[in-house]
Amino acid sequence: MITNPIPWPDGARCAVAMTWDMDADSAFNWYNKETADTLVAAQSWTRYDPLIAIPRLVEQFASRELRLTFFVPGWVIEKYPGQIDLLVEHGHEIALHGYLHERSNEIGKDDELYWFDRGLDAYKSHLGKGPRGWRAPSFAFSKHSLHALLDAGIEYDSSLMGDDIPYALRDGGSNRSLLEFPTDWTLDDFPHYAHNRDLGYRMPISAPQRAMEVFRSEFDAAWEFGALWISVWHPALSGRLARFKAVLELLDYMRHKGGVWFARLDQICDHVQQLIAAGRWTPRVETLPIYDSPLPEFSKTR
Ligand SMILES: [Zn+2]
Fold first, then answer.
1. How far is the CA of 138 from the centre of ligand 1 (A)?
2. For a tag on the chain, would you pick the N or C end, based on fewer CB atoms within 10 A?
3. Angle at Cα 83 formed by Cα 98 and Cα 266, nearest 5°?
């Protein structure tokens, strides 16, 4: 099923990176600039993430000796430094997720670079070095993003959805490249759980069992065919009691099945870079931008 299978460490059948996007109240403030101060219930809903869910996740994953990648906007690092320190102390990776959860492909190149730099500065000033990984807020990766990531020395992105295993993104202008660790909407918890009338989220709320059915099916296929399974979960959603209980049950299921390499994305990055350097595996390469402008076919010039 996978034409360019990648060898995982110790003969593992698949790799699992249970990643979390710790948005806290960044996106909420970005999208509600004029009214955020009046939406107190919505504030409390978004702040459940750093105040309640993060300590819960840290405790439960520590007892299961699981270390994960958390994508965090720079503003959230500044606003909740204690939670970032807690994650780092427990061996989790902090990767960058914008500054205020801006949508890079909606704000123009100059603004994109401005907010990207603010995010980088926030990351570096708290963590003392630059991030290795990036996920575009709202998956809004722009046609300028790859260049900016490469300039910042970022080694991997996890915003795109173009494969089942790692691949490489090459910047057509400079010929530099980085690794892409793709995910998919099937592994995002937003479509199942995001319902908040103040914020305009109107998803019908899934039972955790229904959401896990989707995540588990994706895992079973990844295990069967040797893929990379990356969840995109949010502490404000999947960190709530019933849903997080289901996450832990899914983890038990994966461990019981066996042959799974559980890893942070920086560890997967190390592994893939080593495979490439040793000539043991070559990634498929995709050159960006895919299109530099709207298709000429739409210009009605014929
Ligand atoms: Zn996010």
1. 6
2. C
3. 55
